[in-house]
Amino acid sequence: MSEIQFFKLHGAGNDYVYLDCFSQSEPQRPSDLAKVLANRHKGVGGDGLILVCPSSKADARMRMFNADGSEAEMCGNGIRCVAKLVHDLGICPKDRLEIETGAGILGLDLRTENGTVTAVRVNMGQPILEAARIPSTFSQSPVVNQPLTVDGRTFSICSVSMGNPHCIIFVPELTDELVLGWGPKIETCPEFPKRVNVEFVQVLSPREVRQRTWERGSGETQACGTGASAVCVAGVLSGRTERKIGNHLLGGTLELEWDEATDVVYMTGPAELAFTGTWNGTW
């Protein structure tokens, strides 16, 4: 039996259980704990578990575990909430933070009201467009309008890594059949050896899109920040959108910009505390 203090936060509906590992020890088996805490029927509930840890290289270090216990490199919505905790808990109450992730160290600019973070602009870094580094088995780089056949159906896809792999599919209409039916099949297709996050995207205008995401290890989520960033890049590369877009996800809207001068993608969105609590249990 262990007692754990936790925070429940979400960024545009993409919700995780967060542990402040500055004030308590990191769990010894975080993958197992993630499966227990993220369970929406028998646990706290969430898309996964995120540990907010000390770092020798940055203001804090983020470790992210999906609901199935698999560890992922980064989460764009999650890192905004990490920044909120680091600031609001007084760990490092600055308006600009650097957070260490599995995808590298990222810079974040915080928007505050009455000393509390309400939104965060994240330097998501430069997109990875080389097919092998996504990683994928495609020979073409960048992977743009690439045919992908899964279970007898061929999709035209774009693929981008934002430190984690994404498969972007532009469609006339977003449907459950696409997201819930084809998302899990594409996630595990052999062309993506580390599995892949799948974004289905409806273009509303050159500066506005709507997105639904099937995340590897978690299923459909309310939002995906790295996915929204990848969609911004894919929209430009395929000639569908401009470099600055609004992306409407199930949980809210994110602002994206792929800066032409620096090749960096910037993402701006909310970070909100839902509740705090104490969990007692075994894992």
Explain how this protein is built:
There is one protein chain. The chain is globular. The chain has helices at 30-37, 76-88, 176-187, 225-237, and strands spanning 2-11, 14-20, 48-53, 60-66, 71-72, 96-101, 104-113, 116-123, 143-150, 153-161, 165-170, 197-205, 208-215, 219-221, 244-249, 252-258, 265-270, 272-281. The protein has 283 residues and is an alpha+beta fold. The protein has an 18-stranded mixed beta sheet that branches. The protein has 2 domains: 2-124 and 270-281, Diaminopimelate Epimerase, Chain A, domain 1; 131-263, Diaminopimelate Epimerase, Chain A, domain 1. The protein contains 4 helices and 18 strands.
